[in-house]
């Protein structure tokens, strides 16, 4: 019997040994090792945070408490902040991310300015119908992206917004489009499907770098994959991107 990283319950046992509430901790630990998304002082929003393993890794990544920083977790399920690896910088909110107004989420960030890292590990209740599950997961992913870069304006049904973008290509993005700070990072979990490629095409021009990651701790039977988006462009750059519009159009097409 093998006890290495290839064995089915290796990450489960390691999570128990190290005091993490779920094996998913190792997915964020791998992201941290490869991309260093969370640094001392970061303000982290963790969408779909139950049972709290990413809260633990996020808080650990902030370093000692006097370095500052904050972690806000939101989940439909009520989540108690784990006692291990978390401190007073971690808080959780029980709510449906699909319905919670963006400004209410922004209000949870330090000085209400927004977050420097947004993580979405949200996942629908898997039905086993591959296309349905992938579509639901894309919807959750789009919500995370929309919150980060400002879906609310881009998807509003006011045709004037669309006309303005189309007429001169310089449609004005509002002053506070999303809740991810310029230079910030976004991680989105998706279930593999045709839509996944399109999703990354939309993200690419908005961020300095985008990469796909299938973490070692992902179960072999799972179709999950993470899009890591690093370095959100500044507002000035976003305003000049005609592709910002396609996010809105794409979301509108899908929902
Ligand atoms: C895979 S779990 C997250 C695991 C978590 N990252 C951890 O390490 O402990 C996915 C979570 O997404 C949550 N979720 C799914 N849809 C949601 C929604 N619309 N709003 C808030 N949470 C949602 C589920 O309740 C579930 O707890």
UniProtKB/TrEMBL annotation:
Top-level taxon of the source organism: Eukaryota
Ribosomal RNA methyltransferase FtsJ domain residues: 20-231
Transmembrane annotation, as ranges: none
Gene3D superfamilies assigned: Vaccinia Virus protein VP39
Species assigned in the record: Cinchona calisaya
InterPro entries for this protein: RNA_methyltr_RlmE (IPR050082), RNA_MeTrfase_FtsJ_dom (IPR002877), rRNA-MeTfrase_E (IPR015507), SAM-dependent_MTases_sf (IPR029063)
GO biological process: methylation; rRNA processing
Protein name: rRNA methyltransferase 2, mitochondrial
GO MF, one annotated term: methyltransferase activity
Catalytic residues as annotated in Swiss-Prot or TrEMBL: 189 (proton acceptor)
Keywords noted in UniProt: Methyltransferase, rRNA processing, S-adenosyl-L-methionine, Transferase
Lineage of producing organism: Eukaryota, Viridiplantae, Streptophyta, Embryophyta, Tracheophyta
SUPFAM superfamilies per the UniProt record, alphabetical: S-adenosyl-L-methionine-dependent methyltransferases
Family: Belongs to the class I-like SAM-binding methyltransferase superfamily. RNA methyltransferase RlmE family.
């Amino acid at each position: 019997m093998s006890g290495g990283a290839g064995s089915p319950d290796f990450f489960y046992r390691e999570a128990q040994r190290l005091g993490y509430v779920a094996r998913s901790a190792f997915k964020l630990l791998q992201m941290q090792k490869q991309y260093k998304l969370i640094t001392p002082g970061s303000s982290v929003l963790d969408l779909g945070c139950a049972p709290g393993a990413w809260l633990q890794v996020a808080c650990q990544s902030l370093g000692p408490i006097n370095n500052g920083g904050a972690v806000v977790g939101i989940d439909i399920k009520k989540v108690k902040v784990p006692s291990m690896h978390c401190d007073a910088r971690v808080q959780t909110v029980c709510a449906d991310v699909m319905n919670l107004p963006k400004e209410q989420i922004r209000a949870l960030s330090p000085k209400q300015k927004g977050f420097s890292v947004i993580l979405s590990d949200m996942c629908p209740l898997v039905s086993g119908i591959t296309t349905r599950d992938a579509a639901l997961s894309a919807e959750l992913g789009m919500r995370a992206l929309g919150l980060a870069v400002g879906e609310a304006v881009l998807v509003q049904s006011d045709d004037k917004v669309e006309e303005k973008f189309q007429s001169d290509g310089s449609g004005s993005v509002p002053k506070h489009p999303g809740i991810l700070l310029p230079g910030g990072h976004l991680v989105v979990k998706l279930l593999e499907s045709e839509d996944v490629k399109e999703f990354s095409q939309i993200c690419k021009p908005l961020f300095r770098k985008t990469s796909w990651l299938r973490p070692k701790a992902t179960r072999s039977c799972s179709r999950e994959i993470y899009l890591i988006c690093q370095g959100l462009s500044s507002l000035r750059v976003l305003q000049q991107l005609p592709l910002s519009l396609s996010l809105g159009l794409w979301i509108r097409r899908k929902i």
